[in-house]
Design goal:
The chain contains two helices and three strands; from the N terminus they run ββαβα. The chain is of the alpha+beta class. The chain has a single domain, classed as Ribosomal Protein S5, domain 2 (2-Layer Sandwich), CATH 3.30.230.10. It is globular.
Length: 77
């Protein structure tokens, strides 16, 4: 899930929320690391602040699929 709000016009900011329902601390940290890397490779529109709330599957999905997920989640529709 993604929550988006207006931000600085020439940049974007990303926040990650990985609650305990995702798993233990090791799993949550792994998901956060993977998402941070995926955001760097994804096409994220500027001018917004995003909060990504991942599901448990984010720990095991192949990395290219994770990048696609981040790109699609942050896309302007």
């Amino acid at each position: 899930m993604v929550v988006r709000s207006p931000g600085q016009p020439d940049q974007f900011r990303i926040g990650l929320v990985a609650g305990k329902r995702i798993g233990n601390a090791v799993q949550r940290n792994r998901i956060r690391r993977r998402l941070r890397a995926a955001v760097g490779d994804a096409e994220v529109p500027v001018g917004f602040d995003y909060v990504l709330i991942p599901e448990r599957e984010a720990a095991d999905v192949p990395y290219p699929r994770l990048v696609e997920w981040v790109t699609a989640a942050c896309r302007l529709d």
